[in-house]
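Section: protein folds

Sequence with per-residue tokens
===
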Amino acid sequence: MLPLGLPFQNPHWVLRPLLNRLFSASKAGLEKVPLALMPLGAILVSGLSLAAAGPAHAGETYYVSTDGSDDSPGTAQFPWRTVQKACETLEAGDTAYVLEGLYNEKVYVEVQGDSRRGPVTIEAKGKAVISGQGKKGENIFYIEDKSHLRIIGFEIRDLDTKDGSAIRFEGSGDNIEFRDNVIHRIYGKNAMGITVYGTSSKRPVSNLTITGNHIYDCEPSPSEALVLNGNVTNFVVSGNNVHDVNNIGIDFIGGEDSIVEDPAKVARNGVCRGNRVTRARSNYGGGFAAGIYVDGGSQIVIENNTITECDMGIEIGAENQGTITQGVIVRNNLIYQNDKAGIAIGGYDKSAGRVFDCGIFNNLCRNNASHKKAEGELWIQVALNNQIKNNILIGGGDKPLLSVVPLGQSNVLDYNLWFHENPRCEEPFVWLGKSYGSLDRYRAASGQDPHSLYGSPVHGMDRVHLSAGSPAIDAGDPGYQPGSGETDIDGQDRVSRGRVDIGPDEVP
């Protein structure tokens, strides 16, 4: 039934849902006509028939164009003009296609879907550019406490901010997807690409997918280019390309009380897979930004990523006092030509947090210590009860392969393949501040790496795939059991002949 007091003098606003569905009736062979030419009787009859049928909302398709008007019904023939219009009008299950063109606006997303009718989708068709140039506000897309929402395929650019993002989500929500967006020219301080802050202690951000985005030419320092922070769970961050940013590339954080009151609500239960991070270097503090960083997060798998030309490759740490980073698995990653470390694990000092019960398996670290402040291919700080196995670690220059500080000795290192390409490097292993000139001497002093090898892994021309006769073949931990869905760097079975190879490549 139509509500009493219906203002018939302006049916465009009150009857918008019915009108929009009538304009979409071309699926049933009906002709679309302008609102001004549609008889009011037809509107009422159609509305009554829809109400009588009582079907669940099936989802409609709308359009946004630089040639449109927000006073139009949002059809293909009569599109809206702004993305904001779509983001305050769509209902659950609806899709808005934003056509090619430049849209100079900052968008506050006021709509969401639901589990029954489906998500709200805001999707670019062609090169749809959302530019924040000259507009007020700290974010280009801002979303708060929304669920069942997808933002897909935009070029998002031109933000000058002191604490903002191209896409920022805050609060809580479920089933959120940010996919295939190109984000750049995000300048200022804390000027981030994609930011997800789970700020509610009672309800997390859950079932989050961030995939296929290209983030570059951003100034996130002292924050991160792509970050999940606080009460965020059940996520996938995959296939993103992050490069040329002035701090950390991808970060998973917990323990920051400025984000969520409950310190136990951390970024957790997620996967970071198949991303590429290049030239993520910090512009402060001597430059120790990681391409991929877990800072206080837990139960996260970091696999099959490529990290190069950053301050450090992958870091598993805990900056905040009392925070415990645990259950993080780093496996099958390519980490090469970073400046100061390939993999760093542990809190940076004894007054900060701790890293417990994590695993570093089957990674390739190569030539990650060229800087004068470099620590080595593997740098272990305040970390306990972690396993580091089946990794290939290749050094260059005059820096060590391994550097372990006090409070970093209570871990298990074994079945690794170590090799230094510089035969004049006199100190390839540093254990608790003392240097050792060979694997045997380090092994005798530490009790670590009893089954590990020293020698060239013999890679092919790409320096990634193992060549026939490599000592890494079938030399990994004989008790290693691949994780659920785990593959080598090529997506092949992680174990092919009954025993895992050392490094990220499994020879068939």
User: Anything to note?
Assistant: The first helix runs from residue 11 to 14. The chain has a mean pLDDT of 89. Helices lie at 11-14, 16-23, 40-53, 83-86, 439-446. The CA atoms of residues 394 and 419 lie 5 Å apart.
